[in-house]
Structures are given as C-alpha cells and as structure tokens.
Amino acid sequence: MSKALNTRQLWRPFNDPVLDAQAAFRQIMRALAEPGNLTDLSGIYPGKDQLSSGMLNPLSAAFVVALTLLDQDTPVWLSPVMSQGELATNLRFHCDAPIVDAPKAASFAFLSLEELESLEPFNPGSETHPYQSGTLIVEVPGLASLPSQASSYGMILSGPGIADSRKIAIDSIKPQQIHLLQQNHERFPLGCDFLFTCGSALMAISRSTDLQAGEQGEN
Amino acid sequence: MYVAVKGGEKAIDAAHELLAKKRRGDRSLEALDTRQIEQQLKLSVDRVMAEGSLYDPPLAALAIKQAQGDLVEAVFLIRAYRSTLPRLATGVPVDITGMRLERRISATFKDLPGGQLLGPTYDYTHRLLDFRLMADGDVTEDAQDKPSATDETAPETQRPYSPAEGTPSVASLLRQQDLMETLAGESNSPAPDLSRDPLEYPTDRRTRLQALARGDEGFLLALGYSTQRGYGRNHPFAGEIRQGLVSLCIVPEELGFEIDIGDLELTECCMVNQFSVQADGKARLSSGYGLVFGNNERKAMAMALVDRSLRIGEFDESADSPAQQEEFVLSHCDNVEASGFVSHLKLPHYVDFQSELELLRRLRKENQE
Amino acid sequence: MTDRPGQDEAYNFAYLDEQTKRMIRRAILKGIAIPGCQIPFGGREMPLPYGWGTGGIQVTASILGPDDCLKVIDQGADDTTNAVSIRRFFERTAGIRSTLITEEADVIQTRHRIPETPLKAGQTLVYQVPIPEPLRFIEPSETATRRMHALEDYGVMHLKLYEDIARYGHVSTAYAYPVMVNQRYVMDPSPIPKFDNPKLHMSPALQLFGAGREKRLYALPPYTRVESLDFEDFPFEVQKWDEQCALCGATDSFLDEVITDDEGSRLFVCSDTDYCQKRQKRLTQSSSEVRKEELAS
C-alpha cells in the first residue's frame, strides 16, 4: 500500500470475529442452499445509520460476506464502481485479501448490478474442477422474495433448494441480465454463483438454479 | 426380555481410566521423565517429529510418553496438535551445504572434498544385546569420559559436529562435470503446502517430496526395497548421506533481512541413479532425493529411492510397479490416515452388516424357491 | 472473547482455527452450488482418528454456533461409543447443547444412518464419509474418476450393477448404494443402508457430507432430486423385514438383528434409538391417553 491509511475510511469489523462469522456463514449458507430466499444480515452487522462511529456502511451485507469468507487465500476483484468507495481499503485491511486486476483470477468479485454486462470475464471453473469458479457479489438497488401467488415478479426460480418454485424480484435488472443468469445455469456444473446484496439484505442464485423471466408488473 | 445395550458414556470413561493406569505401569518404579525420552530415545523422538511434521523434541517426547511408546499414535498426537497452531512465518530454504555435519558418507567415491565422516552409526556395531545396559542401566564409563557436544578441545575425530565451513554436495560435484541431470528450473511460485491444501493428482515433485517426508517410514522402506528387487528398478547408488545441524532462518516482513531462529537437525540422502538422455541430447545421471527431520538415515534413503521411482514422467518410464504409481504411493504413505482408517473397522458396522445379511438371506430364499 | 460455560478455553470455539473454518466454509458453499460434486478441501488432522468421523467433525465444527443444539448418532444410536465421543468433543470445544431427540436438533452428525423421524427445513444433517468416490471400487485412480465425472461417463457404474443382477438376480449393493444427484452427478451417499436412500430425495433439510481422510466434501441442498441408480426392469427397492421391532413393534424402521443366546435365537430392534424410545413411550401410556390424544388431533 503506497498511501497511509485513513482510519476514518475504515468500517468496523465484527464485534466477535468468531461467533459473528459463524452466524453470518449460517445465513449465507442457507441463502445459497435456498436460492431466492431473502435474508437480512443486520442482526449480525448493523447496516445504515447504525454504526457506532457514525460512519455509514452502505454495503453492509456485501461486507459481511467479505468478513466471513475472505482471507489471504481468496483473490478478489472489484469492479470500477466498487473500486471507488471504501470497500477496497476495508477488504485489504480487515480481510487481508489480495486484490487482483483480472476477474478470471478472482475467487470473489464485487460489482454493482449495472456493471453486470457479461459473464465472460469471470471464471466458471472447468469440467474437471467446476468448483474453481468465481462467486459474484452484486449490489442491487432492491431485492424481494415474493409470495407464490404474486402476480407481478421479476423471475421464477426452480431447482435444488427450492421445493416447487420461488418468485423473486430484483429492482432494475434488465432482460439481458436475466438472460445472463439463464446462460450461467445452462453450462452447469460450470458457472458462477451469485450473492445479490442490497444494503443489509442478501439473496443467492446458484448456478444450479433454473430461472425464467416473470410477469412484468409495475415492479 | 432383551434390553438394548446402553452405557457408551460409562464405557468410555472406564476405558480412559484403565488406559491411564496401564500407561503408568508399575507405580513402584519411577515415572519416565520426558527429558529422558528426549535424550535417550532420541531416534524415536526424531521419527515422531518427521512423520508428525513438527520439529519440537520436547513435544515429541511427551507424545511418546503419552502413547506408551507407540510411535504411530505419538505421530497422530503431534499432528492433531499441529492443526491448532497458527502459521507465524515461512522459513527461508535451509542451506544444506552449510550443514554442521555429524555424519557424511558417500558410497560413490572413496574420498571426496569434505571427506567421509562416519559419525554415530549403528552400521558397524555387532547386533549383540549389551547386557551391561540392563545391569546398571547406564552407559559405559569410558564413553562418559569422551567429550561432550560442546567440547571444542576434543580431538577432531571425536568432535560431534564439523565446523560450518561448507561442504559441497556430491550432486554438485557431479553437476560441475556435467554428469548429473540438470533440474528443471525451479518454479518461482510459492511452494505447495500439503498440510493446508488437499493433494490433487497429478502432483509435482515438490508436493511429492513433502508427502514422502512425512510418510510412514515402514511403508517407504518396503516400497524402496521393492525397487531394488526389480519392481521399478532404477540402479541406485548412495551418492551421499549427510546428517547434522542447519540454521533455520526467516525474513520478518518488518525487518526485511534474515534472522536465524534456531537449529534443525536433518538427514539428507542423494541417490544417484541410472543415466538417461536429457533434452539437449546428452546422457546424464538421474537422482532421487530424501530429506527428513532428525537423524533417520533409513527413512531418508527410502524416500530418495521412492522419489526417483516416482519421477517416471520425467524419464519416459512406465508405471508398471507400485513404487512408480504416484496415486498408490501418496494416497497410502501417511500413517495417520492409514492407521485411522484401518482402526475404524473397530467401530460398529452393524447397520451395514445387517443390510448384507438381509440381502444374503433373500438370495438364499429365492434360490430355494 | 467468547465465554461459554463448559467450553475448553485452551482451544478456539469448535476447535478449528478461523482460517481453517473459512476454507471449509468456502468449500461447503461450492458443494451446495454443485449438488453431489466432490469438493477437495484442506482437511486437517483432528484429535480423533481418520476414519472415525474427522470429515463430519470438520464440517460440523465449521457450521456449528453457540445456540445450536447438536445430535450425534452412529448406526442410528446416540449412545454408541463413537457417537458419545464426538458429542463430548463438541460439548468440550464449543460448549453447545446436545440432544437425543431428532426434532430438537439443529445439526445432526451421523454415521451410517438417516433418522427415521422426517427431517425439517432448517435442520442440517452432516454425514461422516469414508470413501467419497462412488466409482472408486471400479476405478482406483483419482485422475480417471475425475475425468469420468467431468464427462458424465457413468457407464461403468451401470455395468457393475448389471453384472450383479446377472450373477445374483439382485443388485448386491446393500449399503452405500450409488445415487444420481440433480440428474448430473453420481454420488456416494456414505455407507447408509439403501433402506435410507429414499430419504435423501427432496429432503427439506440441508445435507452435508465430509470425508476427512480423503479431504473431500459434498452437499445436497434441501429439495434436491436424488435418485438411486436402477434399471427399468429392475427398479430400486429397499430392504424389508418379516419381523417387527421387539421393543416398540415398529414395522417401518430399519431393524438391527440381535443374537440373544448361543442357540442362535435372535430378535430385531430399531436401529434408530430415538425413534424406538418415542414409540415405546407412547406404548406405555395408557390406551385411554392414547385415545384422548388421537381424538384431540
């Protein structure tokens, strides 16, 4: 690091690095095991307006994922938008994670929804090692898990982790982006796994998740 | 009326109590001091450190005491303890030519720079039980008069370690004359770490050597022996065996220069093997390498034999014999894994056995019908 | 710092250090994302021997929290010595509550059985796995089996089952019966009797499998399709007993055979001790109470 660290840019870590990481992992694990299920991480790590230092952490769920899963063994890629804020400083400081320039080399990538244009740059794993793939943490403007009778929804999910089907909505997601998620599923067992975050909320879509674009309401 | 067997809890407690009693043995005799084990059963300590992959003589001695001298059990204790230790720093590769030698022999040259140094070896002892050790429980008196490990005034032949002036290796001497294989350029990537990352096949030589270094001595000895008897023969000569102390150094991030954090006792073996034609069209001798914690020549030699036999890919040899098959050797050389899985057969398997019985009875019944 | 009554302060919560837990947690997530696919992980030596549940223990240690209630079974029973030993390990290193009752448990670690009581959403079942590779006994080389999984080349497995049928008239695999997960990966369900295989299918619980010595883990998310391999004309079938449990009278549970004297007399009892005890309790309640309960429900 060439620049001296400004402690005012630092987000606070877990109160209890052992037990908070465990609690967070269980929620992340359940989110991925039940794709489309919305979960809120603010019970473990406060989101907006709740930080003791007064410093806002607008990306609390994404940061909780980082605190829980990242360390010196996990190369991380940050999109241009994600590189602008304090996330990079905090990932280096709290997680000791090496930040890499090539998305293909990253085991975790952080980006915003509007930057999700192609999956080409990311590592989908290989036929013999499909698990050597990247996980994408995508910050979105809004997330919702909807009741099955909802008439207006963005996507309908099915596959492992889903008893029948599950309706969800991701604000501002474009049809091309839904198509990307479908293409990602079609190359199963290769592919990336997605953790969508919105403030302190988290929802996962795994490569095993089959998804169809839903009925477009006013959503 | 049948009552289901209960009392696993009680049985375990009782077993542990009995074990503690058995371990202590006859209480009218003095308890073993771990320092005695460390000093007087040093070769056991060395083996436990090597296969436990943790260089810590006092802990290895404790493990041997706790395991009643069962070395495989002691290795297991050390490994389990090792899992809980944080990694503070990574060592700099040790300087083997700078080894303060206690022993150094070569079977390939009558004499060589640095000389032959016989050192403390059982090799030329007659294996006759020395009943004096039983009678007075102590070493012979004239041995006590001999110089101690730190005595600088002793005659050169009796000094335990040679000065660290640097002794070239046999391999480097052969390499100077272009008779020994040149090794493929050392990769700059960080060395794989078998104690943290799972073994992935096919492996590379660095990973194989790590696995062999902590592999079971008996297993490697048998495999090495099998290569001598024709199962993957590769004409070995003991090019050099050296044993002694090397300095272990680290470079702390905040200092930026090397500091010496202590001595390691190591045994190294370089086997010189049959020649083959290298990429530039010249024939050169090949080699196998063994390096082990402590004083353990048998293990270092066996490791070198097996290392060479596993290098079939580099010499266009075929994997016809067990010692040449990487997956066979590496998947089975770890005695903590092996003894665990063999001993797990003692666990109840009555559900699976019941399934077999049910099937067997059904087949019988259908046969009769 | 965590301060939990009963937890051994000399070691980190649940024994493993945090870096090891993160490594295992990342592997668990990959396992969940690719159901049935074996994920290598940097397994560590545990203070229990390899082959005695070190994989399951490492998985459990990586997911377990202080508020979890843990159940440990071996052969379906909570009081077999190995189950006791593993339960004690977690009581000592994590200070957690444990239970014998399937419904009360958040995490159940098991060797060789799936409880008879149906599992619920939110529960996690952790299996101890000796040999994770279903193709291992047909093809000993890891490099070769990895390629077979990559190419979905499972012909040899069907061939093996077919040869059984040709020779015995039955598939001779009675436990560790291979399954097809999510129509993609052939998976070893660990040495559970094939009686338990149907419980794998569309289970509401998360199922995690850990093989410590082989350093592999894999997973079945809830509601995952799990089909036992079979043939159209030889459909998969589970074991049946003519007998019933000598203690609770169950006819629907997996029965262990107990030899009661040296003339070879034998009787059968439930392998799932919790299930059996619950049924026995109900039997000892007076019949009127049972009737009242039935009326109430």
* Count of individual helical segments of chain A: 5
- Average pLDDT taken over every residue of chain B: 89
- Rg calc of chain A: 17 Å
Portion of residues in beta strands of chain A equals 15-25%
Shape descriptor of chain A reads: globular
Q: Can you give a write-up of this model?
A:
- The complex is a heterotrimer of chains A (219), B (369) and C (297).
- Chain A is α/β, with parallel strands linked by helices and 219 residues long.
- Chain A has 5 helices and 10 strands, in the order αβαβααβββββαβββ.
- Chain A has helices at residues 19-33, 60-69, 80-84, 87-95, 175-186, and strands at residues 39-40, 76-78, 108-112, 135-139, 143-146, 155-158, 166-170, 193-198, 201-205, 210-213.
- In chain A, the strands form 2 sheets. Chain A has a 6-stranded mixed beta sheet. In chain A, strands 5-7-6-10 form a 4-stranded antiparallel beta sheet.
- The radius of gyration of chain A is 17 Å and the shape is globular.
- Chain B is of the alpha+beta class.
- Chain B has 2 domains: 9-82, no CATH class; 100-121 and 161-183 and 192-333, no CATH class.
- Chain B is built from 15 helices and 4 strands.
- Chain B has helices at 8-24, 34-40, 42-52, 57-66, 71-82, 131-135, 141-145, 170-176, 205-213, 217-228, 297-310, 312-315, 326-332, 335-343, 350-368; strands spanning 100-105, 237-250, 259-277, 283-293.
- In chain B, strands 1-2-3-4 form a 4-stranded antiparallel beta sheet.
- In chain B, a hairpin with an 8-residue loop joins strand 2 and strand 3.
- In chain B, helix 3 crosses helix 4 and helix 9 (205-213) packs antiparallel against helix 11.
- Chain C has 297 residues and is of the alpha/beta class.
- Chain C has 2 domains: 18-228, Bacterial phosphonate metabolism protein PhnH (Rossmann fold); 255-296.
- In chain C, the strands form 3 sheets. Chain C has a 7-stranded mixed beta sheet. Chain C has a 3-stranded antiparallel beta sheet with strand order 7-6-10.
- In chain C, strand 11 and strand 12 form a beta hairpin.
- In chain C, helix 1 crosses helix 2 (54-63).
- At the A-C interface, helix 1 of A face helix 1 and helix 4 of C.
Topology:
The complex is a heterotrimer of chains A (219), B (369) and C (297).
Chain A: H1 19-33, E1 39-40, H2 60-69, E2 76-78, H3 80-84, H4 87-95, E3 108-112, E4 135-139, E5 143-146, E6 155-158, E7 166-170, H5 175-186, E8 193-198, E9 201-205, E10 210-213
Parallel strand pairs in A: 2-3, 3-4, 4-8
Antiparallel strand pairs in A: 1-9, 5-7, 6-7, 6-10, 8-9
Chain B: H1 8-24, H2 34-40, H3 42-52, H4 57-66, H5 71-82, E1 100-105, H6 131-135, H7 141-145, H8 170-176, H9 205-213, H10 217-228, E2 237-250, E3 259-277, E4 283-293, H11 297-310, H12 312-315, H13 326-332, H14 335-343, H15 350-368
Antiparallel strand pairs in B: 1-2, 2-3, 3-4
Chain C: H1 18-33, E1 39-40, H2 54-63, E2 69-74, H3 81-94, E3 97-98, E4 107-111, E5 124-128, H4 142-150, H5 155-168, E6 179-181, E7 185-187, H6 197-200, E8 206-211, E9 216-220, E10 226-228, E11 255-259, E12 266-270, H7 273-284, H8 287-296
Parallel strand pairs in C: 2-3, 2-4, 4-5, 5-8
Antiparallel strand pairs in C: 1-9, 6-7, 6-10, 8-9, 11-12
